[in-house]
Amino acid sequence: MNSVKRIFVALGVLEELQKEISLWQKKRADWSVRWVNGENLHITLVSPWYEKNIDAIISALEKLEGKFAPFQIQFNRIEFGSDPSHPRLIWTAGEAPSEMIVLKDKIDTALGKKSGRQSFLSHLTLARFREEDLADLPVSTLNEEIDWRFEARSFLLMESLLSNTGAEYAVLKEFKL
After folding, report:
1. Residue ranges per domain, the chain?
2. What is the pLDDT, as a whole number, of residue 132?
3. How far is CA 152 from CA 8, 31, 67, 120, in A?
4. Which residues pair with 144 in a beta bridge?
5. Cβ atoms of 156 and 12 closer than 8 Å
6. How far is residue 42's CA from residue 18's CA, in Å, rounded to a whole number?
7. Is the confidence at residue 136, as pLDDT, over 50?
8. Which of 30, 1, 36, 44 is nearest to 17 (CA)?
9. Which CATH class is domain 5-176?
10. What's phi and psi for 170, nearest 5 deg?
11. Which of 26-40, 58-72, 133-147 has the highest mean pLDDT?
12. Contact at 8 Å (CB) between 97 and 135?
């Protein structure tokens, strides 16, 4: 019997960048935020939805496997997100490379999803906090320049496991580009 799962499609973050992010987070360990740990770092390509037929989703995504070349992703700043006037996240941001947009569009089409390309922002969530906790942070604005990059070599079907301590993520299947 298939149970309903909250799933999404994402790009995973390679271990080298996970380590770099972890070092950045450790320098701010006293901040009152919930840090996203390395294995949970990802770039969402298709936002979460509830699905019962996981096998059909895997089958649709398998048809895309091996049809793309690896591509570079670069992040150039760390800032508050997603709404600057009511921030609840610390994230990295950067321009989405054209290869990522093409991949996202092909995945959306394969899954019968409407492409959200017009509003797509390449970002990694580093931490979450409640808006009312912003005053407790040692900074009131955040616009730090960085040069973080990695090569995307695969995309992931992931499950979002929600709990009262925040979301955890499990990889259901990896698909090579």
Report:
1. 5-176
2. 87
3. 17, 30, 13, 17
4. 78
5. yes
6. 10
7. yes
8. 36
9. alpha beta
10. -125, 135
11. 58-72
12. no
